[in-house]
Amino acid sequence: MLLHAKESLRKMFSAATSYYGGPMQSHALSAFDLRHSLNSYYNKTSRHVFSCKARSLTQFSCGGSSSDQEIVIAMGSNVGDRVSTFDRALQMMKSSGVNITRHACLYETAPAYVIDQPRFLNSAVRGMTKLGPHELLKKLKEIEKDIGRTGGIRYGPRPIDLDILLYGNSQIDSETLIVPHERIHERPFVLAPLIDLLGTSCDGGTETSWHSLSKCSGGFFESWNKLGGESIIGTEGIKRVLPVGNRLLDWCEKTLVMGILNLTPDSFSDGGKFQQVEAAIAQAKLLISQGADIIDIGAQSTRPFAKRLSPNDELERLVPVLDEITKIPEMEGKLLSVDTFYAEVASEAVKRGVHMINDVSGGKLDPRILKVAAELGVPYVVMHMRGDPSTMQSEQNLHYDDLCREVASELYTQVREAELSGIPLWRIVLDPGIGFSKKSEDSAELVSGLKSIRREVGKMSIGASHVPILLGVSRKSFLGEICNLANPDERDPATAVAVTAGVLLGANIVRVHNVGYGAVVAKLGDKFRKKMET
């Protein structure tokens, strides 16, 4: 049995590494790791594999649990405002005794079994609960009823569907509940979110036991790969999407171009040019005409050693422009982003029509912004930066032993804080922070290391490794140093090259001053990337 389990763990690891195109040498499992994982697994699972069909039911199996159990709950909806329904279900689960700790990405999927019905949204959450499995099932059924689910045809349309996929390291087989869910292995719309909640690192604990409950010796990774794995994402059957505004964006379909609109007197490139409302609106129209998908408006400079404004001062610059830009017809179908790290500014901006929050500090400079972003229900950009603009270029903040690994680890720590504050992973965008607490050679390495960053994040959370990446290289000083261009306005051709590299390596949103260049190279980059992937 021990030899069989060792082989199963090796298969799980092999299946996990297939996500990234080959073995991860720095992450290989040693013999000690295997023994430790197996011993932990057998010590735990021997106590919690049971059948509720038996008459001698334990308090743990069908009643309350004396200790927290880690669980996975699948979510589905294809009736009404699906995203709002998910938001409501999350809140109701939290108030019903489920402490949600992680979220999967959001998927729009074709209906299964009964195909003549609207497309579904699917996701899943991972959390902790003291509720027993049947208590939990009862709570979920109450939530479904409160949201509006009634009886109907099996597999037919429903406003919400909540299923227990996994409960601790237990197997449950009763008349009302089967765990693991018996149809996990045939449903891409269930397996994709489940995989998101795992990591490619074998933790030797809960995740190892969960994999052991799958029907494949290689765990859920093997089950997912048998259905096609990542190769089926982006097809009509299943798409990974970002809810923003009144739409669902498939960010892998095309790279989005974010045009920069600085309302500051002291930004490093265009400071002072667009402080007046008329000038700002004219620039916004120009950016849109050149092909911008998103206008990112900033009223506070975050260049090195910039003086920090108060929230009130920032709003004084921002509000007049927001009030006018939302009125222009050119904004139809476009998105607005606010570049701020203040909770008050983010809240006011969204109330006035902004669709997403771009926080250079990832919640570090004003932690209240995380709760605010969660309540507002808009996408939130988590950028990597050490310190603040006045300290980010200090010797301590510029020191890295392993750049991509450390940036990925620190970014994921910020993602965890965002999730625990209530921002679902499906609303998070990652930004490696080019030029922020980075030397010039570091910035260049990060552009070329985007795949490495995803891979490192994936060791901790596969879902987090799939979220959109925003890349901001435009006119940055590292380009000037490499190309010997002191004037930022002369760096647009260098920016175009860096953007092209970024798109080829997995950037999904590119933030640029010159949208004319940015839109062209993004389109070409998409074309080249798709050719390289086929």
From TrEMBL:
Coiled coil: none annotated. Pathway: Cofactor biosynthesis; tetrahydrofolate biosynthesis; 2-amino-4-hydroxy-6-hydroxymethyl-7,8-dihydropteridine diphosphate from 7,8-dihydroneopterin triphosphate: step 4/4; Cofactor biosynthesis; tetrahydrofolate biosynthesis; 7,8-dihydrofolate from 2-amino-4-hydroxy-6-hydroxymethyl-7,8-dihydropteridine diphosphate and 4-aminobenzoate: step 1/2. It catalyses: 6-hydroxymethyl-7,8-dihydropterin + ATP = (7,8-dihydropterin-6-yl)methyl diphosphate + AMP + H(+); (7,8-dihydropterin-6-yl)methyl diphosphate + 4-aminobenzoate = 7,8-dihydropteroate + diphosphate. The keyword ATP-binding applies. GO terms for molecular function: 2-amino-4-hydroxy-6-hydroxymethyldihydropteridine diphosphokinase activity; ATP binding; dihydropteroate synthase activity; kinase activity; metal ion binding. It comes from the Eukaryota. One of its GO terms (biological process) is folic acid biosynthetic process. It holds the Pfam family HPPK. InterPro entries: DHP_synth-like, DHP_synth_dom, Dihydropteroate_synth-like_sf, Hppk, Hppk_sf, Pterin-binding_dom. Residues 255-523 form the Pterin-binding domain. Its cofactor is Mg(2+). PROSITE patterns: DHPS_1, DHPS_2, HPPK, PTERIN_BINDING. One of its GO terms (cellular component) is cytoplasm. Keywords: ATP-binding, Folate biosynthesis, Kinase, Magnesium, Metal-binding, Multifunctional enzyme, Nucleotide-binding, Transferase. In the C-terminal section; belongs to the DHPS family. This is Pterin-binding domain-containing protein.
